[in-house]
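seq/struct pair 1
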Amino acid sequence: MVCSAINDNFSVEAGYRYMKSNMQDTITVSGVDVKLEIDPISNWFVGVNYKF
């Protein structure tokens, strides 16, 4: 993550998030088998912050 102050009140930030996950499971809900799969999650973000 990169964060940079523009002045005393404003700053900007940007970065990349990655969450490694590899889950596979089967659960039964009301007599029906439900297969769950979760793959790795990644995203880019940009933000502007203001301090009062």
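seq/struct pair 2
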Amino acid sequence: MPIVVTLDVMLARRKVRSKDLAAAIGISEANLSLLKSGKVKGIRFQTLARICAELGCQPGDLLAFQGEDEA
């Protein structure tokens, strides 16, 4: 998939644990783990907004487009 999730990078930059982020935004640790690994097909804008608000970042800080030739 050409969209890469870089949530793990932002968590490291902000020194936030996945467990704490999941609790703060109201999703399970398992669902956050799936999101971090890029194993989901989509994300609700509401969830994305909560993550951005909690981490103080923009959606573009969490998602990157990687063209077919960059894979």
